[in-house]
Amino acid sequence: MDEGLTGAAADTDGGAVLAEAWGVDVQIGAKAILSGADLRVRAGEIVTLIGPNGAGKTTFLRVILGLQRPRRGRVFRRPGLRVGYVPQRLALDATLPLTVERFLALGAGRGGREGAARRAAILEDVGAAQVLASPVRDISGGELQRVLLARALLRDPDLLVLDEPVQGVDVSGQADLYGLIGRIRDERRCGVLLVSHDLHLVMAAADQVICLNHHVCCAGRPEAVTRDPAYLALFGEHVARQFAVYHHDHDHRHGTDGAVLPLAPEPDDGRHRAETPDHG
Amino acid sequence: MDDFLLRALAGGFGVAVVAGPLGAFVVWRRMAYFGDTLAHAALLGVALGFLLGIDINLGIVAVCAAVAVILVVLQRRQALAGDTLLGILSHGGLALGLIAVAFLESPRVDLMSYLFGDILAVSARDIAWVYGGGAVVAAALAFLWRPLLAATVHEELARVEGVPVTAVRLAFMVLLAIVVALAMKVVGVLLVTSLLIIPAAAARRLAASPEQMAALAAVAGCAAVAGGLWGSFTFDTPSGPSIVVAALVLFVVSALAPAVRPGRHHH
Across all residues in chain B, what is the average pLDDT? Predict the structure, then answer.
């Protein structure tokens, strides 16, 4: 999991802004799904949206992707931004005969031997080479997540957007997937925006955590967010205490130059950012 | 062989060849009920064609396209569930069409032939329509194939990847409207959907790729036309329903046959 953290702090303030949202309101019917939500993803940074079910996490992703128009607020995507999207589900009709290879080819369509070799190489890179010729609906949940990730990577994305990437994956598989996402970020220097309601692994793998419950409750670096009263209120003291223990494992942080620094005392700006929705 | 039987076979094959691949998409996209709605609305198109004195096929395509657009607009508002909306449009269209045809009171309008098809009365002009329209549909489907398949597999993923999903869906609906107009002559408005979905469903168990399934659906459709016409002659049964029953037999046979699947590699 450490590969998810390496050099994170140094890049957080340095990477170019890939996508940003200001004061996003979304209303579906009479129900306010999002109000005044902000978000920013920079190159080389992993930003994780956490929050309870129905908190508007997926809706926020859809706004960033341009799939959902906000009622109010602004969304910026860097011009020419290539986005790789890993959706939450793939509801393939049982009557549609489609192999993994064909599914990948539907995304970034490079024909010929070169395209096929590239698809096989990327599928191998995400650790799912064995399913290349399998029908999509016969592979396991973990394999499907890797296949979806491979399809996103085939686009050479500047920004990788993942909606609950570990859904339906067992615990050790979840750790592997987050490790993989961290490695992809390190190798490609792309930005990553992901949604999860799994707290344990997310906290270790993210550079920025945005805690969402229709509005941004708190946002900032993981160790700061876990101490935020709004976070404690949202997830409960019990869960939060588990994190306090968990976080003692992280006995260092990185300075702006990448140097290893002791965890305490927490820098003032980190605390402040965690306590206010404005993390800009 | 008699001329009218040759014409019936030629017309039926022409319709089946395009209905197969398009029907595969109807099955994959779970739009069978939508196909029914278009078919029912087609009767209104027949009436419109007579009233305006334009070609009936044009009337059908126009009304079906209008219904498709209305449906897309209403679905976007999400005030009613999709199937409720389809039910309203489907039966509303059928009832309006029945009334409009009744008002025409023309001896040229044979209601039964529109409801159940009359493939044995297919004229040379009808065949020209089938092959002209069929060629247009086939060419457009070939052009749309990849984006349509991408949008069928995952609409939002396709949208993020730059596929103009709404335009592709509308184009698909127009193609469906044309095929409904063509197929009406063969099996009639009440059975049009069966010519779209039963051959495609029969092809499923034997196909390892979308293209194979589309091609096999076309073949199954042709076999159903030939088998249905043979049955119609042999047992003196109505031709449209006989074709549908032949397709049904093919489906049952394929459902009982052992599955053919691409091999899964071992871990």
Answer: 88
Q: Same domain, yes or no, for A47 and A94? A: no
Asked if the C-beta of A131 comes within 8 angstroms of chain B's C-beta atoms, the answer is yes
Please name the residue of chain A whose CA is at the shortest distance from the CA of residue B260: A97
Nearest to A87 among B154, B261, B267 (CB): B154
Per-residue pLDDT, averaged over A178-193, amounts to 91
For the stretch A186-236, pLDDT in tens is 999 999 999 987 676 777 778 888 988 888 888 888 877 877 888 777 777
Domain boundary among A138, A156, A174: A156
Contacts of A146 (CB under 8 A, 6+ apart): A123, A126, A127, A128, A177, A180
Q: pLDDT tens digits, residue range B39-66?
A: 998 888 888 888 888 888 888 888 988 8
Residue A217 and residue A172 share a domain:
yes
CA B257 to chain CA centroid, nearest Å: 26
Last residue of a domain, one of A126, A156, A186: A156
What DSSP character marks residue A276? S
CATH superfamily of B3-190: ABC transporter involved in vitamin B12 uptake, BtuC (1.10.3470.10)
pLDDT at A255 > cutoff 60: no
Same domain, A8 and A147: no
- Please say if the pLDDT value at position A37 is more than 80: yes
- What is the token pair recorded at A142? 């973990």
CB contact under 8 A, B160 and A132: no
Q: Which run of H or E residues covers position A192?
A: strand A191-195
Report ipTM for this prediction.
0.85
Whether residue A11 contacts residue A44, with contact meaning beta carbons closer than 8 Å, is answered with yes
Angle at which helices A100-107 and A112-125 cross, to 10°: 110
Question: Are residues A246 and A138 located together in one domain of the fold?
Answer: no
The CATH number of residue A165's host domain is: 3.40.50.300
Pair A48, A208: CB distance under 8 Å? yes
Amino acid in the structure at residue B260: V
Residue B80: pLDDT over 80: no
So where are chain B's domains?
A: 3-190
Q: Are residues A174 and A261 in the same domain?
A: yes
| Residue B117 to residue B195: CA distance in whole angstroms | 12
Which structural domain range is residue A143 located in?
A: 85-156
Separation of CA B86 from chain center: 16
**Which residue type does A37 have?**
A
Clarify whether residues A91 and A173 are in a common domain.
no
Contact: A97, B152; criterion CB under 8 Å: no
pLDDT at A28: 82
B25 to chain A: closest CA residue: A96
List pLDDT tens digits, range B214-227: 999 999 999 999 99
The reply to whether A149 falls in a domain is yes
CA distance B169 to A138: 28
Residue in B264, B251, B259 with CA at minimum distance from that of residue B205: B259
pTM attached to this predicted model: 0.83
**Which tokens is A123 given?**
């599928």
Question: Does A244 map to a domain?
Answer: yes
Count of domains in chain A? 2
